[in-house]
Design brief:
alpha/beta, 16 helices, about 20% strand, binds S-adenosylmethionine, binds iron/sulfur cluster
């Protein structure tokens, strides 16, 4: 039995580390010209991973932390596709398109808020410019079951999409009402059936814990229902509550949010639940069947983390296209404009719509490696890290190792000369563990840290 009350002290603001340095460190000194220079430097042998941000949604889910444009205007979508095409044309001027594409992802917002014809236009536009897709490329799309038709599925299938991720969040009617997202179980089930019937190889379902009115009992029921959907993967995200950044989150009554000890209990139950049903925990919030390649990657210690979460495909350059999209290369991150007006204006002027980014220093790269290894594999091979970067680990990270002593004392991890190994209970607090290696966080006083709570 774990005494969850003991760990509530770890409930503090902290990054989710989809990047290191985090997006807070990006700045405007990294501009379109810097990005062009980076694109032209990319190595031929590095494959490409393409991300398209499709930002529109009809109405706001109050918990939503994604970059969304709420609209019911049809013409906005056509107009946006036109700008995506302009952006692609600029990108391919500086990108070697003979490189292999190993991933293509449509994220949002709600990609299926675009109708079948519009999705077809987008896929055609991409395929016309990137013709070399790897035979085993992963083509994935996020889908809101409330906006999903068979004809959209046909277009995606025709376009080679083999992975679909469905947004569910929670099945409890009271929770659904509080988050402004009414989505009956049957609607979700039908959407998944449509994908399965079309022969989609891998189905993912997104759930969130930490939402208003959730209790241990309600989430248990949500998990049971979710399991009936027999997805290949489940993502169970910790609700990131950042009302100072997202206005719609202010509609959530904070007194109805579950307490940290309840959240830890839910998380522990979730891990046991999926493991008892034959799934394996991948990173801090994913569960996959043993035959899933994410699972195989973890066995080989080859799981990676990027802006889209966990992936088996490391070593690719990620090209982000569309409003607010983030790209990632060997030693930089780049982000597009967040305001549609600025995004369009840059493209009208014939410039890539870059708002900001960062060039990674050697120290950033070392810490990035350590943090991503811990977040993905819950283990860090110390000799391998030393060899890779030519450092003496104990010396380089003396401060971090000291900070981790309390974690070691509480049996959340073990430090030896060979490795840092996170214990099963420690995985619940992996963000806190990773924070010890974050050089930027140290410069922000604890009461000024504007991140969601780790627990
Ligand atoms: C772009 S949405 C998925 C596609 C579609 N818009 C939908 O909602 O069905 C991406 C996922 O991010 C997760 N998410 C959004 N806001 C979140 C938050 N504040 N904290 C944790 N997860 C969040 C949700 O699980 C959601 O399904
Ligand atoms: S959760 Fe999905 S559907 Fe809801 S507002 Fe966010 S992006 Fe849109």
């Amino acid at each position: 039995m774990i005494d969850f009350n003991k760990f509530t002290k770890y409930s503090k603001p902290g990054p989710r580390y989809t990047s290191y340095p985090t997006a807070l460190e990006f700045d405007e000194s990294f501009d379109a010209d810097t990005y062009v220079a980076e694109l032209e430097k990319q190595k031929r042998e590095r494959p490409l991973s393409l991300y398209f941000h499709l930002p529109f949604c009809r109405s706001a889910c109050y918990f939503c932390g994604c970059n969304v444009v709420y609209t019911s205007k049809e013409e906005k979508k056509e107009r946006y596709l036109g700008y995506l095409e302009k952006e692609l044309d600029l990108l391919v001027k500086h990108l070697d398109v003979s490189r292999e594409v190993i991933q293509l992802h449509f994220g949002g917002g709600t990609p299926t808020f675009f109708d079948a014809k519009q999705l077809e236009r987008l896929i055609r536009m991409i395929r016309a410019r990137f013709s070399r897709f790897a035979p085993d490329a992963e083509l994935s799309c996020e889908i809101d079951p409330r906006f999903f038709t068979e004809s959209q599925m046909e277009v995606l299938k025709e376009g080679g999409f083999n992975r679909i991720s469905f947004g569910v969040q929670d099945f409890d009617p009271r929770v659904q009402q509080a988050i402004h997202r009414i989505q009956p179980f049957d609607m979700t089930k039908r959407a998944i059936d449509v994908a399965r019937e079309a022969g989609v190889e891998s189905v993912n379902v997104d759930l969130i814990y930490g939402l208003p009115y959730q209790t241990f009992e309600t989430f248990k029921k949500t998990l049971q229902l979710a399991r009936e959907l027999d997805a290949d993967r489940y993502a169970v995200f910790n609700y990131a509550h950042v009302p100072w950044m997202k206005k719609t989150m202010r509609k959530i009554d904070e007194t109805t949010l579950p307490k940290p000890e309840t959240k830890l209990e839910i998380l522990k139950y979730t891990i046991d639940f999926f493991e008892n049903h034959g799934y394996k925990m991948i990173g801090m919030d994913h569960f996959a069947k043993p035959e899933d390649e994410l699972f195989k990657a973890i066995e080989k210690g080859e799981l990676h983390r990027n802006f889209q979460g966990y992936t088996t495909k490391g070593g690719a350059d990620l090209i982000g296209v569309g409003l607010t999209s983030i790209g990632e290369g060997e030693d930089y991150y780049v982000q597009n404009h967040k305001e549609m007006r600025d995004y369009e204006a840059a493209l009208e002027a014939g410039r890539l719509p870059v708002q900001r980014g960062i060039k990674l220093t050697e120290d950033d790269k070392i810490r990035n490696y350590v943090i991503m290894e811990l977040m993905s594999n819950f283990k860090l091979d110390i000799p391998r890290t030393e060899k890779r970067f030519g450092i003496n680990f104990a010396k380089y990270f003396s401060e971090a190792l000291e900070e981790l002593q309390t974690f070691q004392d509480e049996e959340l991890l073990q430090i030896s000369v060979d490795a840092i190994t996170v214990s099963p209970t420690g995985t619940l607090l992996i963000r806190n563990i990773a924070m010890a290696f974050d050089a930027y966080l140290k410069k922000i006083p604890e009461n000024k840290r504007r991140f969601s709570k780790t627990v």
